[in-house]
Amino acid sequence: GLRYQNNRVPYEINGRFYNFDPATGNLVVPDQDALGRINPGLSPALRSRIVTAQSAGFPGKLVQSQNGWNPRIGIAYRGFKDYVVRAGYGVYNHLVANGTTGNNNIFSAGAEDFTNALVNNAPLFDLSNPFPSGTGGGTRPVGGISAGGINRSIKTPRTDQWNLSVDREIFLKFGLRTSYVGSKTTHATYRRNINLPPPSTIPFTSGRLIYPAYTGVTFTDSGGNVSYHALDIEARRSLDHGIYLNFGYTLAKQMTDVDEGGIQGTWGSSGALGPVIQNPYNRAGEKSNAHAIPRHFLKAVYTWDFPVGKGRTWLNNPTTFGGAVLDRIVGGWTFTGTGYAHSGWWFTPFYSGFDSANTGQFTTRPDRVGSGKAANRTPTNLFQVSDFVQQPAGRYGNSAPRVIEGLGAWKMDMGAYKSIALTSYEKGPELRIGMTSSNIFNHPNKAPWMNSAWLINSPRTVGIADDYYYDSVVSGGLGAWRFVRFDVSVRF
Predict the structure, then answer these.
(1) Are 173 and 243 within 8 A, CB to CB?
(2) For residues 109, 111, 112 and 115, what is the CA-based torsion angle, rounded to 10 degrees?
(3) 141 in Cβ contact with 44 (< 8 Å)
(4) From CA 211, how far away is CA 422, in angstroms rounded?
(5) What is the pLDDT of residues 109-134, one digit of tens each?
(6) Is the pTM of this model over 0.85?
(7) 300 CB-contact burial (10 Å; exposed 0-12 / middle 13-18 / buried 19+)
(8) Helix (H) or strand (E) holding 326
(9) Phi and psi (nearest 5°) for 179?
(10) Quick count: other Cβ atoms within 10 Å of Cβ 441?
(11) Which positions ≥6 away from 127 have C-beta within 8 Å?
(12) Which residues are bridge partners to 352 per DSSP?
């Protein structure tokens, strides 16, 4: 197969959107009409930095559209007794939020900075005079604001995916599949604050910002990389004589320098355009485990038609009153269940209270001087604190993100249901009763509160800043505490 994909650029119909030009530090709007819609409360210095796309040499929608050709191929070969070999390869272009920054403070009157006051018993500010002039009791020009931008020629992320599997029937009607699955993503999107100065021993001041007119410039670019390799083993027994079974195990490793998942400290969650990396000058320093891809993952799924009742092995056609009553109570039930278990997700150490790189960031990653693994791990003793130390002044810490493996998790879900015919007609109405449960054993899967659990105190003490754990939060997204629901319905 061959797929063609054209990623058009989204835009605001009235032109109230802008981009950032790193070469000049200017804000770029689509046209002259957009210039007429900018916030009149902006300071003259900021207004002088807003230019049209034509004058800046930007495309009309401020970002280029992207095209992509995606070839895909799959093959299956059954040339050996009891064996089937399958292989596949495909290319996928991601749909990304490749539009430019919207309102922010450029077009919004909400950015107006004023103090209202009464003059001659009349307010300076009211709906008929939303932008009063003057100082003291009126408006003050809005100065330094945060800005955003996106590479005008940003590339669409591309994923190459491949797999190879071997299937065969083994015993008791089980089929065994062993697979290797791999993928590689290039041009993944990420964000960085390009207003930060390079790491230095020079104390940070606002005068060291690359673009002093702005408090921050979050710029979106492409270039991130993600690689995934996994061994997947699955044993499945198709439904036969009322029994279906499926067991699986996955050994996986995903490495990335622009992790998309989870909360990674004060950087915040990633969002549609990827994470904001710690050091805008060193994306390679972000390469580590993907937050939500554990090394080991187990699953089990079953369905069992209890062999009692009409159409089943016992009490198939009860002829006595007692048999009919017993059939109504224990006959016709189907039991289902799932079980999951996996090793821990990956978390990031942070050092708080020390701007080591002199860039205005007071929560950054520390130096890592050991493996970080703790013996006999518990929710309050998950990593070796002494393996992470305060980094020296003038640079960021050398620790990569997501180097602390969290605790594993497991849970079992179960369900049961049966249908009771209300008439003698084959397709007549029936009463269905059932129960579903999540985490039936109420197993407490401890999970760290990810924003704080891995904070290392500073400036001179080292320890776990917060050992607070939610008992109700299950590591790895397996659900929360035990939940049981009973259902009764009439179907016709």
Answers:
(1) no
(2) 130
(3) yes
(4) 76
(5) 544 455 677 778 877 777 776 665 55
(6) no
(7) middle
(8) helix 321-330
(9) -135, 145
(10) 11
(11) none
(12) 363
